[in-house]
Amino acid sequence: MNGDIKYFIASDSEGRGPDRESNGSASEITAWVKVNFTATEVGGIIIYNLAQIS
């Protein structure tokens, strides 16, 4: 898994994070991750482990 993306950090309620836009590929990726992976909260930030499909 060298070089693979292992984690995805979702934006918080204030819009900080990778899916700041409500349209476009960032929101499509976020929607796909939310459907296919389990969320874990760490220090108030939602993180998805991309190595563990839900």
Task: Please characterize this protein's 3D structure.
- The protein is of the alpha+beta class.
- The protein has one domain (7-53).
- It contains one helix and three strands; from the N terminus they run E-H-E-E.
- The protein has one helix at residues 25-36; strands at residues 7-9, 37-42, 45-53.
- The chain has a three-stranded antiparallel β-sheet with strand order 1-3-2.
- Strand 2 and strand 3 form a beta hairpin.
- It is globular and about 25 Å long.
Explain the layout of strands and helices:
Blueprint: E1 7-9, H1 25-36, E2 37-42, E3 45-53
Antiparallel strand pairs: 1-3, 2-3
Oligomer: single chain
Residue share in β-strands: 25-35%
- The global form is globular
Query: Could you tell me the radius of gyration in angstroms?
Result: 11 Å
Q: Runs with pLDDT <50, length 5+?
A: none
Count every helix, treating DSSP H or I runs of 4 or more residues as helices.
Answer: 1
Q: Give the end-to-end Cα distance, rounded to a whole number of Å.
A: 19 Å
